Amino acid sequence: MRLVATALAAVAALPATAHADETLQAPSGRVVLTLSGRVARTNGEGAARLDMAMIEAMERATVATRTPWYDGEQVFEGVPLRALLREVGASGQKLVVRALNNYMTEIPLADAEARGAILAYRRNGEPMPVRDKGPLFVIYPYSSDRALQNEVYYGRSAWQVSRIAVE
Ligand SMILES: Nc1nc2c(c(=O)[nH]1)N[C@H]1C(S)=C(S)[C@@H](COP(=O)(O)O)O[C@H]1N2
Ligand SMILES: [Mo]
């Protein structure tokens, strides 16, 4: 069992090595997201602390989808979770995602990387204020895959995300 877990962790770590030897720059603006736990690239206190400019400088993706929370199709823009995890050198089995309101949900790492999920910071071109589920909202491309249209994925879709622990 232990061997299996180690082998899985090694596989999960492969795409995360791109920046593993570089240090992460320090945030200059307000820290909006802290990634802790199994992250290889950190910038203080064993965590990767990111301001919005650092997140916006990462790979970008757009997801146009219907959701349970708004009327009609919405266009979300953000960093793919896969790219975010690669940027901080994340490895492991799961993400423990916490929101400003202390909502907590767990996302298997493989699922975060395979299902096209993004950590959105814009909706229909506008930054999302905290009162409108911002500034960071986990969004899957629900409309493109029926398998995403259920409580499992809606539950993983944390809004007001502020912390991610990689385990
Ligand atoms: N920050 C935060 N994100 C959250 C929640 C929450 O309470 N807080 N609820 C989750 C759950 S369990 C589901 S099913 C969906 C839908 O929540 P809603 O029924 O309140 O719209 O959002 C998810 N994201
Ligand atoms: Mo839910």
Work out the oligomeric state of the chains in this entry.
single chain
Strand arrangement, major sheet = 2-1-10-5-6
Helix amount: 10-25%
User: Counting H and I runs of at least 4 residues, what is the number of helices?
Assistant: 5
| Structural shape | globular
The level 1 CATH classification is: Alpha Beta
Rg value = 15 Å
What's the count of strands?
Answer: 10
- Integer average pLDDT: 91
What low-confidence regions span 5 or more consecutive residues with pLDDT below 50? Answer: 7-17
CATH topology term: Sulfite Oxidase, Chain A, domain 2
Protein name: Oxidoreductase
Signal peptide: 1-20
Domain Oxidoreductase molybdopterin-binding: 64-141
Keywords: Signal
Characterise the protein shown here.
There is one protein chain. This protein is of the alpha+beta class and 167 residues long. The chain has a single domain (2-166), classed as Oxidoreductase, molybdopterin-binding domain (Sulfite Oxidase, Chain A, domain 2), CATH 3.90.420.10. Helix content is 22%, strand content 31%. The protein has 5 helices and 10 strands; from the N terminus they run H-E-E-H-E-E-H-E-E-H-E-E-E-H-E. The strands form 2 sheets. Strands 2-1-10-5-6 form a 5-stranded mixed β-sheet. Mean pLDDT is 91; it is low at 7-17. Molybdenum atom (MO) binds at residues 151, 154-155. Pfam families: Oxidored_molyb. Residues 64-141 form the Oxidoreductase molybdopterin-binding domain. It comes from Muricoccus nepalensis. Keywords: Signal. InterPro entries: OxRdtase_Mopterin-bd_dom, OxRdtase_Mopterin-bd_sf.
